[in-house]
């Protein structure tokens, strides 16, 4: 309990430090930090529609965040969620516009193919990781570029909708994710995200499989010694992580855009990864960090209207959060070992 | 009771008997004098007002259990830590040892437990690394070699200065570390557990070297928890317990029993354990077993032995002679390249680690911090490993944390693990209690074969005794036990038979009842001792 409290307060301090540094940068571009932050807050939570907008932005970040958490639990750093999201998004759109099916079943089929596409896409790095111990960070990052360009190719050359835009034909309404309010595009994807987050937490905590995976992630040699098949579990966990990443793309397509277009969901995969890291790999805590990043994104829409700051400032703040969270990990590690022991080893 | 021989006596003993041998405020003529050193880490007091005076030209042993504060004290002396209170005098001069550079300049040198050598460089190059002798701006290899040779001959540190370090044994690496300290001008040398990696013969040679230092007017501070060595080599002993100095006494006035009592604070026995002879069924058979190490070199060469139920078979040997690989092959973590190991008649070659456990293996691993536990997880989660798929801990793949927690609480009680509860993170426990967590988990698996690797490495003396008790209980319960240890006295206390490993081979076998340290030591160093080889138990 004490540990958890320390971890949470550490993350909060890290975010606070990042916001403080962000404030200094805002001062440097000649804006008032108070005004910028108030505008962000108003843009994110100012009225019903804005809150719904924030939740809409939160949804893909949350699902991608759960994808990252699944990987992190098993010691796998899936940096390819962005690519899995794109492929999943495209796969869902394809089922949506190309295969007329009864309502409900259509949507489920589209989501299912999105899941399969995400898993299949990460299967390549996962295989090389399990078989040849290839660093999954590098291979999943690289797979992002291929995925984004591949889906562009599909969209522009194979399935382009007649007209000027680089997008597929619209999906059939039978494949739409049901909406929640009529004044917003907010949809059932948020529910999927929440269920996934809580479900993942329960699986890791309360199943034998989840216990083994958690040990593979936190003490691989111990897990191996205890009879857990480390390679197989690592492979499975990456596959599962990719599947959730694909699902995020499917939800975005079926819930928001109702078609696949080039650059349809830029950066959600990476935001999800950051949200998961800020949450220390806990799926439930990711709900809150995803909400935080969703609010930043949605709030920033108002920034350029109401203040002199560019909305890129939120990218800067995100980068500062990454920096301060990683710095905090270093500081904490040093606190763990005795100072003497550390210097002992130079 | 302990204070009868405690902090007030050494004063008198010193004044009356040896005259100059004084610990305490009178610190003139001392190579090193620490006064009232206190060091806190948060609420934990690692050193509590410790006085230590080391006379010039003596070998001063510092002994104490893990966590007694030896290493902290030496780190403070060497400038790696700063004390919260107290003062340091080096060669009669009040010194603030802000960092190791200050200590080195004052003539202090430290030989650490873990060596820092460059394997691709020659011995001489390693010795002079960072302070090369130069001529016309280039490294003067000839001068470095000559200087290294001169020092090594003077102090009996036999090394060939031109040889590459990567090819040398641990014992020689240690000599190089000592040479490094010498060329940096050390007159007071601190050695942290120097014999842990040595054969008995190598230890004796090291002691010769230490005596030659003293004869040369130098001073040696020697950290150990090996009592025999302390008795053999030191002039003065300082005992630490729980961060306090219990006593400083001339070694001649002390007996081994007295030392143990001062270290632990009570009576402890490490004599050979009494036992009933048992001849059960053969549980483990190992035939012509070969295996490779991580560098693909042969690490096990034609190993053969059997273990019966109710029998403790010890494996002696200097660390790194194939013991790790043997344990890994038997537990399925490393493939054998040739030969078979059979557990209750079943060939283990095709089994995964999980299947071997299923077949009846319990394994107490040598590197328990890495293999034996997840330090960040709770005691309960650590005790679950290996049984997470079995009832009552799980049903249908769903864990029952209630049952897991209750079981853990019961084991904590049964094995006397000092923890607040089963939810405690393992990293909060002491080394001995962490080992008890591993033992509790493994010994309650119902396995017939116990593979126990270095059960008491880094464990307090008090906990060592408890662990030995537990191993003997398992023997009495009819388990077949393979006990791998680098500590001969441990094997002598527990094993029915001792096999000695050298360079991946079993050099010979000695009955536990007459475990002769010299014979075993010869075999540990690779000398075949025919009359003892393969003697039946």
How would you characterize the overall build of this protein?
The complex is a heterodimer of chains A (346) and B (537). Chain A is mostly helical. Chain A has a single domain, classed as ABC transporter involved in vitamin B12 uptake, BtuC (Orthogonal Bundle), CATH 1.10.3470. In chain A, 76% of the residues lie in helices and 0% in strands. In chain A, helix 3 packs parallel to helix 7 (189-206), helix 4 runs antiparallel to helix 5 (105-132) and helix 7 (189-206) crosses helix 8. Chain B has 3 domains: 1-107 and 187-267, Rossmann fold (3-Layer(aba) Sandwich); 111-186, no CATH class; 282-374 and 446-524, P-loop containing nucleotide triphosphate hydrolases (Rossmann fold), CATH 3.40.50.300. Helix content of chain B is 32%, strand content 26%. Chain B contains 18 helices and 24 strands. Chain B has a 6-stranded mixed β-sheet with strand order 6-9-10-3-11-12, with helices on both faces. The chains are: A mainly alpha (346), B alpha/beta (537). Chains A and B meet through helix 8, helix 9 and helix 14 of A and helix 2, helix 11, helix 12 and strand 20 of B.
